[in-house]
UniProtKB/TrEMBL annotation:
Organism whose genome encodes this protein: Sphaerochaeta pleomorpha (strain ATCC BAA-1885 / DSM 22778 / Grapes)
Pfam families: Diacid_rec, GGDEF_2, HTH_30
CdaR GGDEF-like domain ranges (all copies): 146-258
Protein name from the UniProt record: Sugar diacid utilization regulator
Residues covered by the Putative sugar diacid recognition domain: 5-136
Location of the PucR C-terminal helix-turn-helix domain: 312-362
Length: 373
C-alpha cells in the first residue's frame, strides 16, 4: 500500500490550506496526524480517521472539537488510491464551509500524492541506474556476470558494446550542477546508446566506439556550445577500447588525462595517449614533490617560491627575453633582471644555462599540482 511521507504531506497541506483559507490535516493509515496547519498537532492520534478506515466511511463530520479524540470540528474524507484507503484528509471549520471544499480537496490531495509518488519512483529509478553505471564503469571487473548484463538490459544499456570513456570536470559552484546536467543531456542526445552520469565531481561519458578525430569533433562542439558559459570545464579522454572487461582501465586513463589537463590548465582537453611527463609525475608521491621544491628553493618563503616560479616560467616562455617577459609580468626590465639574478644567487642555479631549465620546469609542474590539491 502506498505510504504518504511526512514531507510530502506537509507540502500538500501548505499548498491547499492557503488556497481555501481553512486549516487542514493529513492523517496516515495508522490514524496518526502526519501533517497539519497547526504544527503542534503532528503526531497526535486522530479518532475520526480510525472510524473512517475501520468502517470504510465516505465522510465523517465532527460537529464539535470534542466529538472524536484528536479531531477538530469539520469534515474528514478518506484518501483512496487503487481502491485502498491510505489515509484521511481533514478540513477544519464550520461544516458548510468545510464541506464546500471537501470533495475538491480530497481529489486534489489524491492527485498530488500520486504525483509525488510518481516523482519518487522516477528519482529512485534514476538513482538505481546511476549506481549500476558506477558499479559497471568505475570499479574493476574481472568477469561480466549474467546479473550485471541483465541489470544493464533493465536500463537499456548493452555493457558488451565497445565504448570510449570521456570525463568532464568543473569547479563546484551554483552554475556547475546545471552545466553537468546539460552536458549529460547533450551526450545522451548525440547517440541513444551513449551513457552519461555523475560520479564524484565528474561527468562520466561512455560513448559508442569512435576514432580520436570524431571525439575531438564532439568535444569541440560542446566547448563551442558553452563558450559563453562562465563555468570553465576540462575534459580527459581514454586511449581507446581494448576489451569490455577493461572499461575500468579506460575510466582510470581518462581520469589521469583529466587531472593532468585541469592541473596544468594548458588545454581544455587531453587524451591519455598524448600524455608524456604527466604520466611520470603522477607516480611521484606528494611528499617527494614538496621535498624537491623546498630543496631547489631552500630558505625561500611560500610567497617567494610562488613569485620566483612565475617569473622563471614567463622568462622561459619568452625564450629568455627580459624585455618581453617584463612586459607580461607588468614590471620594469631592470626589476625582472634583479629578481632573476637573486634567484640564481640563492638557488645556485644559472637560469640562462639549458641544463638548469629542467629542474626549474619540474618545480613549476610540482607547484601547479600542489596548488590544485
Amino acid at each position: 500500500m502506498l505510504q504518504i511521507s511526512k514531507q510530502d504531506a506537509a507540502e500538500i497541506v501548505d499548498q491547499l490550506s492557503s488556497l481555501i483559507n481553512l486549516k487542514m490535516n493529513i492523517v496516515g493509515s495508522d490514524a496518526i496526524i502526519i501533517a497539519n496547519s497547526d504544527r503542534e498537532r503532528v503526531g497526535d492520534f486522530h479518532e475520526a480517521t480510525k472510524q473512517i478506515i475501520e468502517n470504510r466511511l465516505e465522510e465523517l463530520v465532527a460537529v464539535t472539537d470534542d466529538q472524536f479524540i484528536g479531531t477538530h470540528a469539520g469534515t474528514n474524507l478518506p484518501l483512496v488510491i487503487d481502491g485502498q484507503i491510505i489515509g484521511v484528509v481533514g478540513i477544519t471549520g464550520p461544516y458548510k464551509e468545510a464541506r464546500a471544499y471537501g470533495q475538491i480537496i480530497k481529489k486534489m490531495t489524491e492527485i498530488l500524492i500520486l504525483g509525488k509518488d510518481r516523482d519518487s519512483k522516477i528519482l529512485k529509478l534514476k538513482q538505481d541506474k546511476e549506481r549500476f553505471e558506477i558499479e559497471w564503469i568505475c570499479n574493476p571487473q574481472t568477469v561480466i556476470t549474467d546479473s550485471l548484463r541483465a541489470k544493464g538490459q533493465e536500463f537499456n544499456i548493452d555493457i558488451t558494446k565497445p565504448r570510449r570513456l570521456i570525463l568532464f570536470c568543473m569547479e563546484p559552484n551554483d552554475i556547475e550542477s546545471n552545466l553537468k546536467s546539460e552536458i549529460i543531456h547533450e551526450i545522451r542526445k548525440q547517440d541513444s546508446e551513449n551513457v552519461a552520469f555523475r560520479n564524484l565531481n565528474f561527468v562520466v561519458a561512455a560513448i559508442t566506439n569512435r576514432s580520436d578525430d570524431k571525439i575531438v569533433e564532439l568535444i569541440e562542439k560542446l566547448i563551442n556550445k558553452y563558450a559563453d558559459n562562465p563555468m570553465k570545464f576540462y575534459i580527459g579522454v581514454d586511449d581507446g577500447f581494448i576489451d569490455m572487461l577493461k572499461i575500468y582501465d579506460q575510466y582510470t586513463k581518462a581520469r589521469k588525462a583529466l587531472i593532468s589537463c585541469s592541473q596544468f590548465g594548458i588545454q581544455r582537453y587531453c587524451f591519455y595517449s598524448k600524455l608524456n611527463i604527466e604520466l611520470v609525475l603522477d607516480e611521484i608521491p606528494l611528499n617527494a614533490k614538496q621535498l624537491y621544491i623546498s630543496k631547489i628553493f631552500k630558505d625561500f618563503s611560500a610567497e617567494e617560491i610562488e613569485e620566483s616560479i612565475n617569473a622563471i616560467k614567463v622568462f622561459y616562455e619568452e625564450d629568455g627575453s627580459i624585455k618581453r617577459a617584463a612586459e607580461i609580468l607588468n614590471i620594469h626590465p631592470n626589476t625582472l633582471q634583479y629578481k632573476l639574478k637573486r634567484i640564481e644567487t640563492r638557488t645556485g642555479l644559472d637560469l640562462r644555462k639549458l641544463k638548469f631549465a629542467a629542474p626549474f620546469s619540474l618545480a613549476e609542474l610540482f607547484m601547479i599540482e600542489l596548488n590544485n590539491l
